[in-house]
TrEMBL record:
One of its GO terms (molecular function) is FAD binding. Signal peptide: none annotated. The lineage of its organism: Bacteria, Bacillati, Actinomycetota, Actinomycetes, Mycobacteriales. PROSITE patterns: FAD_FR, GLOBIN. It comes from Corynebacterium efficiens (strain DSM 44549 / YS-314 / AJ 12310 / JCM 11189 / NBRC 100395). It is an enzyme of class 1 (oxidoreductase). This is nitric oxide dioxygenase.
Amino acid sequence: MIGVSRPTPQNSYPGGSTVIVSTKPLTDRSRLSEAHAEMIKATLPLVGSKINDITPVFYNRMFTAHPELLRSTFNRANQKQGDQQKALAASIATFATMLVDPEAPDPVDMLARIGHKHVSLGITADQYNIVHEHLFGAIVEVLGADVVTPPVAEAWDAVYWLMANVLIDLESDLYASNDLAPGDVFRHVTVTGKKQLSDKVWEYTFEGDLVTPAPGQYTSIGVKLPDGARQLRQYSLLSGTDSQYRIAVEDNGEVSTFLRDNVEVGDTIEASVAAGDLVMNDDVNPVVLISQGIGSTPMVGMLNQVAADRHVTVLHADQSEKDHAQREEMVALVGGLANGALYTFYRDADQWLNVAGHIPSDASVYLCGGNEFLQNVRGQLENLEEQPREIRFELFSPNDWLIS
């Protein structure tokens, strides 16, 4: 796992509004009692081996009791594919391992991503009780009451609430950082612009009572689908102020398709205030932005706010120049920098992104793209003789593979 240093994010950016980036999770390995730690050590192999069986049962139990969560909060596509179950399983196992193994990495980055995602969805502290009830019901159902004895249940209950309270505290701080009541993140906004950038990517501009985003953040868009379900998806911001956001949406799911076919200029949709912890620092050290496909969106957001004299290197991979949706804007933004360089890699020309020679000393590296792409780039970065100052990333899918 790449070591990541975390400078304290700044609280405000041009535009005057406070943004939701000021806090990171506080983890403490010593908070689990010795007796509970011994029980977790003894049962972690069993629970870990069964956790991918436990999580589907958990979600089925929870959505049966609370169907409104699947219709209005959770991503139905990820549920259908099992991605969200894998992410939850990985996060719980990773957190438990951190508590009992002094050599295990602190999952602070994992928890930060989860906390910001929860804030962007308007998750509140009381919903952790719902998760607790059905998760532990699923554990007993899968493992059996003879295995999940009271001491075992008590130890895993302690792990759950330690993790839950870390997230609850983080999310409370994030809401408070912008004077928001917990869960009060969605605004009705008016679409003021819609244009096609490529065969698969559309750009939308909308206006409302929003919050100035930090460079690299995202917004959750909510739409009511024909079957009555309110579905939410996160989209990175190309640019934004406290009254206007601009996003790019790739056609790859029911929400993006609905936006393309049904939402026009003048229509009203839901949008959350900006969230997300992939935030470019405002230091003076070199910056390297590495992206694939629609992962260029947060990089354009960063380029729109980076200081004109900062050393910035942009590496972007795509299927072809035609598919590079933000190419024109990216070229213009990099061209406006005193020390900017853009390198593109197109698969139809048999070009493959290679970081060698592009990572300056003391650089801050920001990554965004698909799972395989990020795995590949992460491996390349790990093999460099000199490691960058920090490596930050964003995924457009549940990020279970990155937290192992």
